[in-house]
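Why predict the complex rather than its parts? Because the way molecules touch one another can change local conformation, and only a joint prediction can capture that. The input here totals 467 residues.
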Amino acid sequence: MLKRVIEAADITAAVRTMAMEANFYLGEDVLDAFEDYRLTEKSPTAVALLDQLIENADIAAKQQIPLCQDCGYAVIFADVGEDAQINGNLKDAITEGVRQGYKDGYLRKSIVKDPLRRENTGDNTPPVIWCDIVKGDKLTLYFEPKGGGSENMSEVRGLKPADGREGVINFVVDRVKRSGGNPCPPVVVGVGIGGTFEKCAQNAKRSLLREIGQRHPDPFYADMEREILTKVNKLGIGPQGLGGTTTALDVFIEAYPAHIASLICAVNIQCHSARHKVAVL
Amino acid sequence: MSNVIDIQLPLDEVRVRSLKAGDVVSLSGIIYSARDAAHKRLVEMLDKDEALPFDVQGATIYYMGPSPAKPGEVIGAAGPTTSYRMDPYAPRLIEVGLRGMVGKGERGANVVEAMQKFGAVYFAATGGAGALIGRTIKAAEVVAFPELGPEAVRRLTIENLPVIVAQDASGGNLYKDGVEKWRDTD
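Output of the joint prediction:
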């Protein structure tokens, strides 16, 4: 069967656009969540902070400047259709799109070449790219600029299978509690359960691509998401950790088959600037 | 929201000690941006008895690394970064005259101790409100470490930067009191 050809230049152009749009325009789902929580928030200080976030999103969109100076580590999920053929190198094409987007969009370059020697690469490359092979002849690219402050509050832990549902819930709620105001609450909590060490972290990250309010299709996990969200919003942390009833906008769980010995769990915290874009080529 | 206290920087000890956790403040005047790499260098300079690149007496440091200014603009997005990473360095700067810090997230015991001893205050700016805060910055000039890019030290002229006193010079801490107030324990 003849494969459908996708040009590398089109991939670069799509990534460049997504880098800028993700950083300038907050998703409607996040804005709606700000408005909804604003109505239920009990602390007047917290309401004023949510108002600042709504105004901030408006200024960023109108002036086409970043919502936040931390324009993130460029994380890309590339779902490659098995019947698609890329004319060029996928990794190079994505990297070039990141380079162009961060330069042309006046986005901050936040990546250092080496984690210990810490010299800025100057163009926000390299990105982190996760590839998966899927059915079909399309290439789907998800762009998730991930801020450092919330990433720093993330954690992977090997729970015991005996810890079960309650153990996972306690771990997630405790992780949010210990994060306090550091990750820029109200946060979105990405949870990976099961799989191997790296698979569960990757699932926690991938879960953050969902729209606010989008529940897990399995009622068991949807119910667990609701329960964690309720518990987290009782912690009192509030916007910026200064107190309030809006600590998280949502909780997303992704589960994966686990080893008989393991219940590995990952929490990836996302700040309120919950930015992501998708392009289908 | 409570009444807004207008503060013209720099700060003095009397003013600092009058501020209480939870006070809503509007800051104007000169503020210096410095974050992780710049703090490391500033403290290295102090250790070598070198002069700092700005007058630290009464100064306020903003933990911030902006996005680049678009052509014709003063600065890009300019919200605070998480402050605990500067905790290893802040007490040294407070000891030599720093009075104010602006960032986000709770400070550690070593910083609180120096704040109480020497008289310094910690303000929380709204993390993630980078576009909004950028509009309060009227002038920006790199004064040290230009090779650090976004992490260079900048002298910023600000007008009405909205902040909240998060931790004060007498141990008041909104990260504890505010959270306890709104925690639902039922």
